[in-house]
Specification:
Distance between the termini: 27 Å
Subcellular location: Membrane
Organism: Nocardia amikacinitolerans
Largest sheet: none
InterPro entries: Pur-cyt_permease, Uracil/uridine/allantoin_perm
Membrane topology: Multi-pass membrane protein
Mean pLDDT: 86
CATH topology: Hydantoin permease
Protein name: Nucleobase:cation symporter-1, NCS1 family
CATH superfamily: Hydantoin permease
CATH architecture: Orthogonal Bundle
Oligomer: single chain
């Protein structure tokens, strides 16, 4: 990316403090993300150790293998619909998520949803880097078993070898983001397809140990009654959406670089219902095979890789899993906070600087300790993550129903009191009130004790309530006239 020299879009005030080269609208020269790139983006988003663990973990709710696959597929369809709504809007307006949110929340109010998204992304960025480092450690120990003594607990609870693996991947990711979105596109194009090699190889190996026979009626949890099965089915479907709720909200960060609406829709179609379904099916097949071979479901593919006898296979699989996790981390958890942090002070923080801040924070939160503390992930990250549903509902209603797909792009960068999206001192009280009410409800639902069927509904409840409130508040007295660009 370039530096932060102010380059306002045509029509925006030349003295605006709300723009830098990275937050400015996409041009024809930078619209390089075609159908294949969008397809690979979604492949990269789905292919990770955490994604595998999530899909496999759903078996523990008590449904059979085929029921779990069908429930996850239902969630994939909801995700596909949402990605089309956000993607089409993002491509048309041509601005990153925090700038897009200015039309609904106000030019300064947009920092509220943007920084909420950034908080979640920073923590997950650190956690994903740590998970990728565990795959790298498997590779290192297989090649150099004498380093096993380096795995003992060390500085701040992470072993010497753990620190080396973590910092190597941390540096690689920082180098990728340092060269901007075009390098991110190329990294995604490689990482997305590459993991299929490892997943297919892992499936062949474990199916061979399972004598090429698995039971799709097998389950990891206790059998469920008819009503409980329906509740679990709905829960799994929406947990699938919740798992991708953050990336769904900031999808405009990527869709804006697509040259056409058609490229976005085609990329979404291949990348979500086709690819994500295939990944889910393969993940469940592998898990059912592990259930037969080991008597339990292994939610971490790295554990399987470490059990393989062939050094060559272990090395290749470990490299591919580490590569895939680095890819998903850059795409889902690095790009978003880089833009979101830049949006907080555009004149002083570029996309590149926002990325550096994200990387530094990801070490300070000590993700290896966070991963061990599931209560933190459930209550803090789960609670903040639940706010992504209301943000999605508010943005979609504002764009499609309130503004009727019309945006005065130059006004998104106006920090003057007469600006179209300035509202009240740069904040839209209606959108923020809708977020406050729906967000509170969504968090309460997300943190409901001992009721996974209820917590799974936090995204649809929050999204629906946020959408309804936003529409109701703006119908009473529309904040922004629906004028054309």
């Amino acid at each position: 990316m370039t530096d932060t020299r102010v380059r306002p879009p045509a029509g925006a005030p030349g003295s605006s403090t709300l723009v830098n080269d990275d937050l400015a609208p996409t041009t024809k020269e930078t619209a390089t993300w075609r159908t294949w790139d969008i397809f690979c983006l979604w492949m990269t988003s789905a292919h990770s150790i955490a994604s595998y663990g999530f899909a496999v973990g759903m078996l523990a709710l008590g449904m059979t293998g085929w029921q779990t696959m069908l429930a996850l597929f239902t969630g994939v369809l909801v995700l596909w619909l949402g990605s089309n709504l956000v993607g089409v809007a993002g491509q048309k307006v041509g601005v990153p998520f925090p700038v897009f949110a200015r039309a609904a929340f106000g030019v300064f109010g947009a920092n509220v949803p943007a920084l909420l998204r950034a908080i979640v992304a920073v923590f997950w960025y650190g956690i994903q880097t740590y998970l990728a480092s565990t795959a790298l450690m498997v590779l290192i120990l297989r090649v150099a078993p004498g380093l096993a003594s380096w795995t003992e607990a060390g500085f701040l609870g992470l072993s010497t070898l753990g620190w080396i693996a973590f910092l190597v991947l941390w540096t690689v990711q920082l180098a990728i983001i340092n060269y901007g979105m075009e390098v991110v596109r190329k990294a995604s194009d490689f990482a997305g397809p590459a993991v299929w090699i490892g997943m297919i190889a892992l499936a062949i190996w474990i199916l061979g140990k399972a004598e090429w026979s698995i039971d799709f009626n097998a389950r990891a949890g206790a059998p469920l009654s008819g009503g409980a099965t329906v509740a679990a089915f709905v829960g799994v479907a929406f947990l699938m959406v919740s798992f991708m709720a953050g990336p769904l909200v900031n999808y405009a960060d990527f869709a804006r670089f697509s040259p056409s609406r058609k490229a976005v829709l085609r990329g979404n179609a291949w990348g979500i219902p086709f690819n994500e379904t295939a990944f889910v099916v393969l993940s469940i097949i592998i898990s059912l095979a592990t259930l037969k071979v080991y008597g339990k479901v292994l939610t971490d593919p790295v554990q399987l890789v470490a059990d393989i006898d062939s050094d060559v296979v272990v090395v290749v699989a470990a490299v591919l899993f580490a590569t895939a996790t680095v890819g998903i981390n850059v795409v889902l958890n690095f790009v978003s906070p880089a833009y979101d942090i830049s949006n907080a002070a555009p004149r002083y923080i570029s996309f590149r600087t926002g990325g550096i801040i994200t990387a530094v924070l990801s070490i300070l939160v000590m993700p290896w300790k966070l991963w061990e503390n599931q209560d933190f992930i459930i209550y803090f990250l789960g609670g903040v993550g639940a706010l992504m549903g209301p943000v999605f509902g508010i943005l979609i209603v504002d764009y499609y129903l309130v503004r009727r797909q019309r945006t005065a792009v130059a006004e998104l960068y106006s920090d003057t009191a007469d600006g179209r999206y300035y509202f009240s001192r740069g904040f839209n009280p209606k959108a923020l009130t809708a977020l406050g009410i729906s967000g509170t409800v969504a968090v309460i639902v997300a943190l409901a004790p001992d009721s996974q069927e209820v917590t799974a509904l936090s995204w649809p409840v929050g999204a629906a309530l946020g959408a309804v409130l936003m529409y109701a508040f703006t119908r009473v007295r529309p904040s922004v006239p629906a004028t054309a660009e």
